[in-house]
Amino acid sequence: MIADGVEDEEKWLAAGIAGLQQNAFYMHRALDSNNLRDALKYSAQMLSELRTSRLSPHKYYELYMRAFDELRKLEMFFKEETRRGCSVVDLYELVQHAGNILPRLYLLCTVGSVYIKSKEAPAKDVLKDLVEMCRGIQHPVRGLFLRSYLAQVSRDKLPDIGSEYEGDAETAVDAVEFVLQNFTEMNKLWVRMQHQGPAREKEKREKERSELRDLVGKNLHVLSQIEGIDLDMYKDSVLPRVLEQVVNCKDEIAQYYLMDCIIQVFPDEYHLQTLDVLLGAFPQLQPTVDIKTVLSRLMERLSNYAASGADVLPEFLQVEAFAKLNNAIGKVIEAQPDMPILGVITLYSSLLTFTLHVHPDRLDYADQVLGACVRKLSGKGKLEENKATKQIVALLSAPLDKYNDIVTALKLSNYPRVLEYLDTETNKVMSTVIIQSIMKNKTCISTADRVEALFELIKGLIKDLDGAVLDEVDEDDFKEEQNSVARLIQLLHNDDPEEMFKIICTVRKHILGGGPKRLPFTVPPLVFSSLKLVRQLQGQEENPFGEEESTTPKKIFLLLNQTVETLSNIPAPELALQLYLQCAEAANDCDLEPVAYEFFTQAFILYEEEISDSRAQITAIHLIIGTLQRMHVFGVENRDTLTHKATGYSAKLLKKPDQCRAVYACSHLFWVDDQDNVKDGERVLLCLKRALRIANAAQQMSNAARGSTGSVTLFVEILNKYLYFFEKGNPQINVAAIQSLIELVTTEMQSDSSTPDPAADAFFASTLRYIEFQKQKGGALGEKYEPIKV
């Protein structure tokens, strides 16, 4: 059926074009022979093709444009006729003898254009006559195109100020009157289209009307170009008349389009000075009109106008723009009780953007907007609609974008209240936006109260909100979110130790409720922030004033012990052990032996009870040895206890090569360069000999299991340890011990049962070259190396 209708329409259009072209041909022939009567006859017949009712607006437009082109040629002929002495008044009357009204009016408008140009009659009189005459066509499509033609031919002939057709001083009023009258009639015709035809074709009619809307809107554009319209005339006459027509037409499509046209075509300054009148029309529009979009565009234009220069801002204050817009939005929402929540949020989002541009210093205005939004959201529960939640994110992002400072946003009491209406996922998105704003602007959050407020805002990232299922979260997204929280914790700072300690306590309170998946991300930055504060307080024993409430390293270490303990409970023993060792090192620098000992104790307990994976054990024991070697705070007894533990665990590792490496690493625990009381040569030698025995046992096991002794790498590594302590002046490490070890390695490498290992060969060769180099270098060290034969 539809296909048949389209084909029929194409046929009718083709027939119309053919008829038009045929008559146009005869009209041209008459024009060429200066035969006025035949020219009028054929032009009228040509224009009769526009009387059709069978074409859709789109197809009718094609036909109209062909007729329009022919009429321009006819107009030029009429001009030539008047130059040759033909009276334009006679011509104006002659065309009115055309048989049909539609061709007659097209010809009348064409001659009318020449009549105005001839200046034989005032432009206002001719235009008034034409606009009145056009009422003879009441068919919507034919009438719209006729009046569009009238607007087109008269556009450059309006009696405007500065125009050659100006006439007396009141002429601008006449120009306005003509355009307004034409606009009013065109709008009536346009609206009438909606009510013609069966109800089932409503969508088709709306589509057709949408195609024709620019014909009506052009009138408003022409109106905006009239020089004679000053602010007073616009305020007293033009805007009220246009709005009256918009409101009275009671048509959803027309009201939406025309309100948008008004906002787009007239100057921003005029909108600002007539806000009362303009905003007063919005609540009177049909309930189905998309007011939110039109009002949002108005506020966007005013925002841009405010941003254009500081000199315009006093105008906004003078007319109390914020109060008027806020009041208007309230009335619109009341007038449209069925307005979806998206519309409400969009309106308040636009108002907030406007407020931030025009009144950046008035935080109370911004908070007022957010408060109004909260009131409208109350009772709605969490928002599920995707577009609505996105709009709330835009609403909440506006203050961050404007102020580039979360601290300012934190002063808005209603800011967190709006955030509560977001679903879990969008809450996380908003939290991420807040953190990114802080990072981008390097915002310093320097008080515990602000940190408390901030962490309340971003709680969607810090803990599971009601109904959230953590297992459903993408692993990579989760890591990215938690890493952003970790970076945020590192940014919190205050030079005052008391306030910084309060900040740390506040952060700790929030993150400890984050659950086992989050703690490994959020506890380490908190620990390092605390250690930074410890370094700041380093050397401070007690508060000089004796205040119990003051922040001391001991107090921080107590908090750290409890904080790291949460990691061992989740469990994340490897991370907890590393943090315990970091804390022990900080306690060492503060000369707090009992505290450092306690942290080491906790690390050893974790190693014993929680770390069972062999690779994790290797890493952990080397960390323990490395940290213990740097400690200077321990007395002999405590150091011996911890050293004994470390060497004991080293010898109990699963694989012999790992045992060997850990045991020879322990030799450094008995010889520390910058500590004279930790230089026990005998125990160093014992460690190295024990490492040799383990390396030897590893070779034997390899021989028994694989039929080859394996690599000599361990022996070369132990040789290098011997050389290290030999250089440091350990009396127990002598030339004989080194010489015998070199010979042992050489023998093993030449053995038939050893496995070829190019890396071990290169390592040994490099070690021998080092010995030779020291000999050649001379000096005290060279003399020590001289007896060694390689």
UniProtKB/TrEMBL annotation:
Gene3D superfamilies with a match to the protein in the record: Vacuolar protein sorting-associated protein 35, helical subcomplex Vps35-C (1.25.40.660)
Pfam families attached to this UniProt entry: Vps35 (PF03635)
Keyword Membrane belongs to the record: yes
Subcellular location: Membrane
Assigned keywords, A-Z: Membrane, Protein transport, Transport
Subcellular location, principal: membrane
Membrane-topology annotation of the record: Peripheral membrane protein
Membrane keyword on record: yes
Recorded family membership: Belongs to the VPS35 family.
General function of this protein: Plays a role in vesicular protein sorting.
PANTHER family listed in its UniProt record: VACUOLAR PROTEIN SORTING-ASSOCIATED PROTEIN 35, VACUOLAR SORTING PROTEIN 35
Name of this protein: Vacuolar protein sorting-associated protein 35
